[in-house]
């Protein structure tokens, strides 16, 4: 006997015949008629537990509201990433003022036997509770900053 043939036979998927499938369906029907309830099994106490795993979390701020769209800036690794998102997601969460900070949380949630993706826009303050102010720097610090930011 050839080794290649033996390995091929070992790793071949068994093919289900129509008779096997029909027998399996009949067994399932008899299990259901004898009191097995697949709906109760699907929604058992164990599968009703809620598990949540945060996949992404960013801080950001609102740049502008433009009709059905909103321009936001997410801050990641000290870089500002500008994106257009649906405005209603922000407005429903009371994020309405330009420069208003918020937190974006994306998570996977397992509940009632199903996985779903959850996106939350959480305001970090009320629209009228923040101010944007400039900071007066000493002359020496201002010159250093200008030298760093100078582009040629």
Structure described in brief:
The protein is of the alpha+beta class and 152 residues long.
Return the CATH architecture of the largest domain: Beta Barrel
Secondary-structure-derived class: alpha+beta
The arrangement of helices and strands along the chain is HHHHEEEHEEH
Radius of gyration: 29 Å
Number of domains: 2
The CATH topology of the largest domain is given as OB fold (Dihydrolipoamide Acetyltransferase, E2P)
- N→C terminal distance: 77 Å
Characterise the protein shown here:
There is one protein chain. The protein has helices at residues 3-10, 18-33, 38-42, 45-48, 87-91, 139-149, and strands spanning 51-66, 69-76, 79-86, 101-111, 114-123. 32% of the residues lie in helices and 35% in strands. It is built from six helices and five strands. The mean pLDDT is 77. It has a five-stranded antiparallel sheet with strand order 3-2-1-4-5. The chain folds into two domains: 16-47; 49-123, OB fold (Dihydrolipoamide Acetyltransferase, E2P) (Beta Barrel). It is α+β, with helices and mostly antiparallel strands and 152 residues long.
